[in-house]
Amino acid sequence: MLKYLARRLSATFLVITLVSMSVFGIFAVLPMDPAALTCGKACSAPVIEANRHRLGLDVPVQVQYGRFVKGLFVGRDFGEGAAAFHCPAPAFGYSFNRHECVTTLIAEAFPVTLSLAIGAFVLWLSVGVSLGILAARRKNQWQDRAATAFVLVGTSLPTFISGILILLFVALKFNLINPIEMGRWVSPLEDPVAWFRTFIFPWIVLALLYAATYTRFTRSNVIETSMEDYIRTARAKGLNERDILRKHTLRAALAPIITLAGLDFAGLLGGAIITEGIFNLPGLGRLSIRAVLRDYDLPTILATTILAAVFVVVANLLVDILYAYIDPRVRVAS
Amino acid sequence: MAAVVLNDELNSTESQEIVQRTPKEIAWGRFKRNKVGIYAGGATIFFLACSIFAPLITRAFGVDNHTVYEGVLNEFAMPIGPLGGISWSHPLGLEPGVGRDVFALLLYGSQLSFLVAFISTFASITIGMLIGIATGYFKGKIDSTIGRFADFLLSFPGTFMIIALSLPLVQRVEAIGLAHENAARILVLVIFLVFFGWTGFYRLIRSQTMSLRERDFVMAAQAMGASSWRIIVKELLPNLWPTAIVFISLSLPGYIAAEATFSFLGVGVQAPASTFGLVLSDAVGYWRDDPAYLLIPCAILIAIVLALNLLGDAIRDALDPKAGR
Question: Whole-angstrom Cα distance, residue A320 to residue A312?
Fold first, then answer.
């Protein structure tokens, strides 16, 4: 197990390095010039060059990457002289457009995305898994058909459509969200009711999509597992159906869902671009999309992209370790 | 007595001619029994036909997608009449603010949606099939390298990368002179969708190829001295087609929804062209005064995606009855 852990950890570290390098590389070869975008219409060549130097874009891309990594560990100074600005470690860069360390921007946005992801996760996991179990237990009865209909609707509704329909024709139409309060971050520690009111509709929108997938997945896994020989054995030795379901069927049927859930959750942590955009939530998704559409704020774009990838890679590692812990067969195979 | 019964049974089987059915006929027979699948197939053909014959249909209704109609909007630039100005001459109402015909906009828009979805699906299938068969059959170093690369791709935030990179890439495509304006935008979108989309199909085909190559009929072919090329084309491919068809039918709705999502977000085609996503992002601004302009395109887009999904499910049930049931 320790050997397995060590191997997986070093592999994860390697992947994170490769991902961050490729993100740097991809954005460096683009014909987009962030320096030219820093000073509006009244730009002259010397100003652009000065800004390029301030942004740290006048050196080769490998040097830029080196500075970026160094900044992550020891912090970094941006600009020179009176205009100099220090970002403490971990420094993801400095947004000249927002005059703020990117780390600060991310720290502000992250609680929003975390709230969104956790609530949606709880909602879709509970709805999806219980609906899937119900459909499998009542196979070919009306409960199963209702679950199938739910799956169809959930998978056929693009998020942006369910988002705008729920926002406009439910939340705003019936005054369930105050449009002025929209887009303001409320901490659950300060005002849990307002926090819940802000997030309940985004949760529903996100959960609708994911719950459908989980219902389908749980249903087919439970049906498949209940045909296994050891379930028949359990039944033959006189165990009641409740215990068979709880102790034998679900344990095996739900293990693969951990993988799926872990990766989906990590994907959301990188920012739910569409949902955050529609509900105007100031999370990582909105931060990155604004960085692209408003002023092509390269340091922010790089940081959020790398961060989103790191979440997925780390989740992959955690999920695999957890899975090996739950399912001994995986450990043997590794 | 028993002998008589046996004899009778023998006679009855002899009198009934045994009809041999090919796998294709068996699948078709299963599909025909699935009513939902038949309706979904009909709806899909209807939507596709509407899209393909958009120029003819719009001419028959006397509308087109670029004319700005006069006298159909009131002084607030809102369509005159109920439900966003629905009338015999404008069956789905009018675009608020501008005054174009929504029916024509959506018909021509669906052409773009289907185009993007079809090209992306077939490109992903082709790439996934080639790489999946090659790596699954020959295994070795290339297999593990490509497998790692596919895993690596999964960790990138695809949606965001498409949004962040499309503008600069469209500029580059235009600078090279490969395509211009909307053609360039469609090209870049398709390239991205395929780049992040082929891995799912590649995995599926690879695992199927790996299990097929261990089967007896492949070993028999190898024993007879068949070349790898012959085994792939004659033994493996015919067995992989059902998987490919199921994947195509289940990818199309996904790509239609993806195209709508990206054009809603401002990536992809721009006005004066129209797609579902563009119309919807415009309609959000008028939702209180002209809800029909938002709800009608929504309903049609959902109907298209739903019909394709149901058709895909029916095709999967017909070709692979064990899956998903």
Answer: 12
For residues A43, A45, A46, A50, the Cα torsion angle rounded to the nearest 10 degrees is 80
Q: Evaluate whether residue A2 is within a structural domain.
A: no
In this prediction, does ipTM exceed 0.85? no
What is the tens place of the pLDDT at every residue in A280-312?
A: 899 999 998 888 888 788 889 889 999 999 999
- What b/e string do you get for B229-244 counting C-beta neighbours within 10 Å, with b at 16 or more? eebbeebbeebbebbb
The structural domain count of chain A equals 1
User: Which of A18, A26, A161 lies nearest to residue B165, judging by beta carbons?
Assistant: A26
Look-up of token digits 């580059």: B172
Q: Render the burial of A172-192: b for 16+ CB within 10 Å, e for the rest.
A: beeeebeeeeeeeebebeeee
Report chain A's C-alpha Rg in angstroms.
24
Contacts of A15 in chain B (CB under 8 A): 152, 155
Which residue range is the domain that position A282 belongs to? 109-289+312-333
Give the domain CATH number at A129.
Answer: 1.10.3720.10
B107-158 pLDDT per residue, tens: 998 999 999 999 999 999 999 999 999 998 888 888 888 988 888 888 888 8
A264 within a domain of the structure (yes/no): yes
Query: Which residues, 6 or more positions from A45, have their beta carbon under 8 angstroms from its beta carbon?
Result: none
Task: Report chain A residues touching chain B, CB-CB < 8 A.
Answer: 15, 18-19, 23, 26-27, 30-32, 152-153, 155-161, 164-165, 168-169, 216, 220, 267, 270-271, 273-274, 277, 285, 288-289, 292-293, 296, 301, 304-305, 308-309, 312-313, 316
Q: pTM (2 decimals)? A: 0.85
Report the C-alpha gap between B321 and B29 in whole angstroms: 12
